[in-house]
Amino acid sequence: MEIKKRIYHSYVEPKEAKEAGMEIPCHFGKYQYFYSFGKNKISLVEFKNYFGDGKDFWEIYCLVGELFEDVERFDTKEEAETRIKELKRKGWLHKLIWSLIN
């Protein structure tokens, strides 16, 4: 599995936001992670107090492939990465079964 990390496109440094006169706090973590395996690609992003309830969470989204629909949310990055590893195994198993029946 290949993992890439980049600064999330919606992230704004708190100091820069204040200097720009932005009143709304940034609800995104600084980095977005991309997990690639086979023909699949999953995005992982941290959300900080996104719903105004004081709780942070991590969200995965399937960018390429059909491993799951919509998004899945987790309390920690570790929980999200565990789920990504499960999806990797699921994708590998699906590929193996498909190759055996065709």
Q: Give, in spatial order, the strands making up the sheet with the most strands.
A: 1-2-3-4-5
User: What is the makeup of the main sheet?
Assistant: 5 strands, antiparallel
Secondary-structure class: alpha+beta
Return residue spans where pLDDT drops below 50 for at least 5 consecutive residues: none
The best one-word shape is: elongated
List the total number of helices.
2
The radius of gyration is: 17 Å
Helical proportion, percent range: 25-40%
What is the CA–CA distance across the termini? Answer: 26 Å
How confident overall, as mean pLDDT?
Answer: 85
Percent of residues in beta strands? 35-45%
In total, the number of domains comes to: 1
**How many β-strands, per DSSP?**
5
Describe the protein in words:
With 102 residues, this protein is of the alpha+beta class. The chain has one domain. It has 2 helices and 5 strands. It has helices at 14-19, 77-101; strands at residues 2-7, 28-37, 40-47, 57-64, 71-74. A 5-stranded antiparallel β-sheet has the order 1-2-3-4-5, covered by helices on one side. Strand 2 and strand 3 form a beta hairpin. It is elongated.
